[in-house]
Automatic annotation (TrEMBL):
<dbReference type="InterPro" id="IPR029063">
    <property type="entry name" value="SAM-dependent_MTases_sf"/>
</dbReference>
<protein>
    <submittedName>
        <fullName>Adenine-specific DNA methylase</fullName>
    </submittedName>
</protein>
<keyword id="KW-0489">Methyltransferase</keyword>
<keyword id="KW-0808">Transferase</keyword>
<dbReference type="GO" id="GO:0008168">
    <property type="term" value="F:methyltransferase activity"/>
</dbReference>
<dbReference type="GO" id="GO:0032259">
    <property type="term" value="P:methylation"/>
</dbReference>
Length: 296
């Protein structure tokens, strides 16, 4: 597991530096990266990215045989590879060697190891309303917020920190406060160093912020409740930028109709996102979404 974590970090570092080897360019989120590295760990007898030998006597032909053996275990590995754009033995070998080329990266931070272990433990675990914001979308939300140094900013559904990470990267000099209801996710946020001020956003009263950026739960129009509450928690001239399901734009029940009237009355700006905007999330979902921007 520690060796897999090392690969995870080094590929993440390569993405941050903009020098991802072409054979690995389709591995751009945690879930496929984790599956890929775990598969290679089972393939390599000594999967040490620092080792001088690669694939302990594992020849190219041995890798090629995975695609032709017909064995159920090999077929499962091939299915994972196809999912990240690797479709034959040569591409598999090239990807293995590309990952090997990332050895010798930065020293591993034990705290980072713990964070990644906790994130990996969440794979396959259902947390109601938890769909991490993909990195490009998180950056878009932060850009729309119009944040300035010294502002007090709230992320009311911290999750694993996607929006917080985008905020910290672009605006390190703001007062960022976070709320998160799930215990395991709060542990991740604490390890990342974020200031958690509560666990239930809807229970927060008598506190106001300059900016609120949010990705609330969508089920049963819960995002409407969270959006209205967030608007109430804004200071004068404050701004809310929140991701929402599109359901409020067309449903005919009173809650959705009243919310449409409210958005119109406050001059909200709605940006419909492309289909599949959350396919790159660590927990992909096909729910159609958009971004609502409201000034107070």
């Amino acid at each position: 597991m520690e060796l897999v974590q090392t690969w995870l970090y080094r590929l993440a570092d390569a993405w941050d530096a903009g020098n991802v080897p072409p054979p690995l360019s389709r591995i751009d989120s945690r879930s496929p990266l984790y599956q890929f590295t775990m598969m290679l760990a089972s393939l390599w007898r000594y999967p040490d990215p620092n080792a001088t030998r690669h694939a302990q006597d594992y020849s190219f032909q041995g890798v090629e045989d995975i695609w032709t053996s017909g064995h159920s275990t090999d077929q499962a590995k091939c299915k994972i590879l196809v999912g990240i754009g690797i479709t034959n033995g040569q591409m598999t070998w090239d990807a293995m060697m590309a990952l090997k080329s990332l050895s010798g990266g930065s020293v591993i931070d034990p705290k980072r190891v713990k964070i990644e272990q906790l994130l990996n433990d969440l794979i396959g675990t259902r947390i109601p309303g938890y769909f991490p914001t993909p990195k490009p979308l998180a950056q878009r939300v932060v850009d729309l917020a119009g944040i300035r140094d010294g502002m007090r900013v709230l992320e009311p559904h911290g999750g694993s920190g996607s929006l917080c990470d985008a905020m910290k990267a672009k605006h390190p000099n703001v007062v960022l406060e976070v709320i998160e209801i799930d215990f395991d996710l709060r542990e991740i946020l604490e390890l990342k160093g974020y200031n958690i001020i509560g666990h239930d956003f809807l229970a927060i009263q008598d506190v106001l912020w300059d900016r609120i950026i949010a990705n609330p739960p969508f089920e049963n129009l819960a995002d409407i409740d969270h959006t209205l509450h967030a608007f109430d928690r804004l200071l004068p001239n404050g701004r809310l930028v929140t991701i929402m399901s599109v359901a409020w734009t067309f449903r005919k029940d009173k809650k959705a109709e009243d919310f449409r009237d409210w958005v119109n009355n406050v001059g909200g700006d709605w940006e419909l996102l492309p289909e599949g905007a959350f396919y790159e999330s660590d927990r992909p979902t096909g729910v159609r979404t958009g971004i609502l921007v409201v000034n107070k």
